[in-house]
Amino acid sequence: MTGARAAVHARAVSRHGSSDPHQEGPVDLRLVAPALAAWAAAAISLGVPGGGVAVAVGVAVLLAVGVWWVAVVRYGAGRDPGADEEDGITPRDDTGGRGTTAPRARSCGVRSAGTLVALAAVLLCAGAGAASAALHASDVRRGPLPVLAEQFAQVTVELEVTDDPRLTRPKVRGSQRTPPALVFTAEAVRVTAPNGKVTAVRTPALVVVQQRGGGSDATSGPAAARAVHEPGPARRDAAREGLWSAWRGLLPSTRIRVVARVAPPLSPADQAAAVLRVTADAPPVKVGAPTALGRLAGSLRAGLREATDGLRPDARALLPGLVVGDTSRVPPDLDDAFRASDLTHLLAVSGSNLTIVLALLIGPPHLATRAERRGLAPRLGLSLRGTAVVGGALALAFVVVCRPDPSVLRAAACGLITLLAIGTGRRRSLLPALAAAVLLLVLYDPWLARSYGFLLSVLATGALLLLAPRWSAALQRRRVPPRIAEVIAAAAAAQAVCAPVVAVLAARVGLVAVPCNLLAELAVGPATVLGFAALAAAPVALPVARALAWCAGWPAGWIASVARTGAALPGAEFEWPGGWTGGLMLAVVLVVLVPVGRRLLRRPWLCAVCALAVLLAVCRPAPFTRVITGWPPPGWRAVVCDVGQGDGLVLAAGDGTALVVDTGPEPHAIDRCLTELGVRRIPLLVLTHFHADHVDGLPGALRGRSVGAIETTTLEDPPGQAQFVRTTAAAAGVPLVRAASGERRHLGPLSWEVLWPPAPPDLPGPSSPGGLDSQAAGLDGRNGSAALDGPNDASVTLLVHTRGLTILLLGDLEPPAQRALWAAHPELGAVDVLKVAHHGSAYQDPLLIRRLAPRLALISCGAGNPYGHPAAGTLAALRAQGVRVLRTDTDGALAVLGTTARLSAMVSGHRTLVPQAMGRRSRAGPAGDGVAVRVRRETGEAVRGLPVLGGPGRARLMLQDPVRARSPPPDTPRELADARKPRAGPPGGRRPRPRRLGQSGKSAATGRARRWFAPERTDT
After folding, report:
1. How far is CA 988 from CA 5, 164, 805, 807, in A?
2. What are the residue ranges in the chain where pLDDT is below 70?
3. Does the N-terminal peptide bond of residue 870 adopt cis geometry, omega within 30 degrees of 0?
């Protein structure tokens, strides 16, 4: 008997045994269906006309009433006989005869009545959600603002700010970086139309504030390049920054008056009725001060920012985001790291923050209603009701300070319902609390039904309540320590349910989310507690707040390090089909993997094999990746990285060493390309010109690598992007040098010469403030009198020699500069490989292409770009000469291999070009099909299985004897000292042109890879 009882207690949920009165019973799901019904009805009704919603609501109410009436009838028919005895009626014996009701039949009737009541509740909640959504959607369509938006009218609007202004991230569009803008939501309360009619309204709107001229990058050309060093623009920049700060300092509930151009929203189903585009010529005109609560919350947030001013950069940026969701200081690279490592939920204040705060008050939640409860409440002598009141005040203050974002509202609602259960002494059950919170919030603000943030918050919380306990128990049965099992189960459950939604939004799947969350969890609690302490102390004792913030900075820095380290891993994430199709596919995969994982846990050796496979997929060591994917190919000479609509080219110069030419428009793309190629050292990084699609990826190229110097063109235009390069280089401690025509360098097997732009006679050093006039002046006598017409024509042009191969990099030169290049270098002959100018645009000089006579042409452009690159005419002109053309938009990254005798190329993947929606592109990763292009110089025949000759060797940069050399700047590395020398023609005169053939080559399939063979170069 004792043994039996012990076994029962051992299998019980509670450690006190199955007789523990405080253990949780079955999961209460009664509120789940009504909450989901209200959620779905609200989401659908926001995009449906009001008349249709009214009819649907009426039908739902009628059905609910009918179902409820049927339930009452069935409940009355199936009442328990004991109820009749209470009414003084003696029930008849159950003899099974006519007129009697069997107990089983009565029980079935009661159960069916309960089911019908639940159905009626679902119908009523769905009707309530639809009605609330229709009423809120009518606010968007009410008033004159939607009509004025269709006319793109200019109006005067009085607004009430409802959110903190946030600065958008600059994006690269073509060659320019779009200037940042301030975006915030507001309610229009008074609209003055162009005809002078004034209307009082309550219409939601989205406000976009831009400065006149679009920021510092609005002007371009030589005049702008000269102005960048003048004191006037510096003063204007300071005034512009002060004006920007005035707009950014607007607090919610402030009333302002603006003159704006009204535009319709992107989608008719958007929450905003119109988009108000405001040009910030002056500080905002305030017509109403913020509320007292708004001022208090603003002062607390400002105090926390001030207390963190002295911290290290990552901790200074991150701590306000961890505590109150203030991400205004988070730089783009840190934000990208949090996204790649799936730690963005730490920057979106959620239930974990409120849980930590309430835990200080009530202690562990499972002890909150017992005599042995912990926390500050029993020490302060607070009763259960007093604890609930104080906790509710903390939850409301939490919403005010952290702003009513979807995750904050969900956390506060769950917390308030749980506190209400504690105060009333009722049984605390978290899943009904979550369902009730969802129901109340959707009825209060139906727009939450379409919020992805709200969806992710609810899914993560539901996973922690339903899946995490079961997964934790399974791990503990396999001798995993309880605390570690709980943390692993919580991170894995939240990631499993949220991953499909992330795939819908970002078209990717992260592999480092669980380990990064486990490592970050160690520091979240201390950082949050100390951060809230600093927040509370800042208004009364700033030195104390700074000391607390300094202590909180250490765990915050740890979290930032975890995010950066996880994001830097080559396999931190991989691409996945986006949209709802991709999300459903991932959900199906996860559902299949869960039972497989259960079986794996029973076989330790299989678990070890799977863990090793995941580790290899995340770390992607070069030998393993090369064997599996064939990329990067051994012995590559040059690689055109797949950086989207931009340029990024890498030239091998030894083991882990390379010359990099341009960095593309986005840091992550060039960083990934260099990581895949194993490049750790860049003695020289050349930026051909300052357009954003060539320089904005510079932080990614510098990340974690040793860079000797950055060489740029002589024309600092656009000035804003030139300033970005100077600032980024200074922050990394990398010196800047200027390229000059005639300089020659040598780096191991690699040698190159700068052919363009021409060197002005009085070219200053890179640190000289003057000389921009001369940099934009006409060419000297040797190069003609043509002027540099903009940044494209000032592109640094390189002629590269590597193990017998000749590669010409034209940058973005346009036809006038191409003709000037030809005139300046009459000795320039045929080349093996040509990097086609300006992404293969139609602006090419056909005579120069005919003269260069390349065997292989490389074009770097983005899939689905809106410029039509590469142009059909350019492709036709190249192919008419028998040139093999490879392009990154369809072939992925391009690698050049072999020697002059055996020229070959390989691509990393293939794409099928399809119309892209909203600029979204599908990028092929290194796992794509390998395609080899080989040129046999001796015979011109198609040969299968030609080996790739050569390989990267170890070498260092060599200095050639200078002629017409200028003194290098004092901060230039010794090994990169400039040397210029007139270029001599190739041995034996000009290179022969290729033989014209009827076709550009032959094709043969070999397994996964497809090989193309091009003709030899023969004498004419």
Report:
1. 99, 69, 16, 18
2. 1-26, 74-111, 213-238, 350-351, 363-375, 422-429, 760-788, 910-1020
3. yes
Identify the three-state secondary structure at position 734.
coil
Determine the 3-state secondary structure of 383 from DSSP.
coil
* 285-288/255-263 β-pairing: antiparallel
DSSP-assigned letter for residue 871: P
Q: Is the dihedral of CA 692, 693, 699, 702 positive or negative?
A: negative
Tell me the two tokens of residue 917.
Answer: 């929606």
Do the Cβ atoms of 343 and 516 come closer than 8 Å?
A: yes
Q: Where are the alpha helices (DSSP H) in 881-1014?
A: 888-891
pTM for this predicted structure: 0.76
Whether the CB-CB separation of 129 and 449 falls below 8 Å is answered with yes
The answer to whether the beta carbons of residues 227 and 719 sit under 8 Å apart is: yes
Alpha carbon of residue 663 to chain centroid: 19
CB 839 within 8 A of CB 888: no
Residues in Cβ contact with 688 at an 8 Å cutoff, skipping those fewer than 6 apart: 647, 661, 662, 694, 713, 795, 796, 797, 809, 811, 812
Cα separations in angstroms, 984 against 251, 479, 800, 825, 833:
67, 74, 14, 10, 19
Q: With residue 754 as reference, give the H or E element that holds it.
A: strand 750-756
Strands 154-161 and 182-192: antiparallel
Residues 292-347 have pLDDT tens digits of 888 998 999 999 999 999 899 999 999 998 888 888 889 888 998 999 898 888 88
Pairing relationship of beta strands 176-177 and 182-192 according to DSSP bridges: unpaired
- Determine the Cα angle at 589 with ends 586 and 590, to 5°: 90
Confidence (pLDDT) at 996:
29
C-alpha to C-alpha distance for 583 and 786, rounded to whole angstroms: 56
pLDDT digits (tens, 9 = 90+) for 600-614: 777 778 878 888 888
